[in-house]
Amino acid sequence: MKKILYFLRLSLTLMLVCGVSAGALAATYSITQPIVKEREDREMREKYEDLLKIFKVDGAMLEESSEALEKGKEVVEGLEAVFDVSKDGKKIGVVVMTGSSGYGGPVKAAVAINNDGTIAGIKVLDISGETKGVGSRVIEEPGFIEQFTGKAVSDPLKISTDIDAISGATITSRAIAQDVGDAAKVFKEFAVSGK
Amino acid sequence: MKRSVWRDFTIGIIEENPLFSLVIGLCAALAVSSKVENAIFMGVAASFVMVASNILISLIRKIIPNQIRIPVFIVVIASFVTIVDLSMKAFFPAGYEALGVWIPLIVVNCMILGRAEAFASKNGVIRSIADGLGKGLGYTLALLVIAVIRELGGTGQIVAFENTIVSLKGFQPPQILQSFPGAFFTFGILMGLLRKLQRKGE
User: Is the pTM of this model over 0.80?
Assistant: First the structure.
């Protein structure tokens, strides 16, 4: 009997210590978490502010969707990130960051797609592998990127079908079109949920 | 014969310096001492945990049965480390990013469990605070000395909290000081020098 009481005392002491510890940690967490969350949101906003500008909506918020990324990777190899864009808690579109191979390396772009399936805009993120003055003209000549804006994701989005390539920079142009097509594919397959 | 509280504090700085004399908690120390800024963050974080856990363990030492003292110590230490981890994430994000996994790893830093077992579980609160502060200060100073040598020697300048504090001109810094072997060299040489000085004093 004495022994049982002793073991009971041991376990109860340990339980008490752990309970107090858990309480202290919960308190600390509840104090620090809002601060951390706020900073993370702010950093995220700063990082992707340019992307949000494509939507031309004030106060839009980005939220990374790891689920769409995971599923999307099965269809699009170069997929890097999928963001849900929302305003006042309502989803207004998605941003798909993806890359495909260009002339001298990956050509990466962020493609913003409205909820109704039209392309809101494109931001080219990385063309560092392309030839300066040739492939780089895809961002230097504004008309090229603008061709995609307003097109529907159901359009073919193919160079020389409904998009004019930059002469002399066909490969880079094609890579951008490929990025947009991939983004459209991801949008069609996974990002359009009833949310 | 009982040591004075002041002695409990001062002994941690040189004679029982956690790094140079007791040679404990080296792993984290060598990893974070490539930058002065990181050394300061790590020193303060570890000192806080040590003082806080020393206080609490000293307070509850009489009600904790001997058989479960180690798990209790670990829970206490882990709780304080998590508090530091969460607070740094919220208030010092730069330091949190730089130190990374070394903050949670303070839990298994034998320096802290060592003080709990060897000192705080046997002594009163005031003496335990003095012990924690002394060992913490000794640890921080030792980290600082190593970090100053490694950062100044390895990069030619010391940049802390976005200010360039010292910058050496016309000096080709040996990058090895920034790497782990450089940490071992620096540490070994400093430890040897300190031993030699101590022996001379005797």
Answer: no
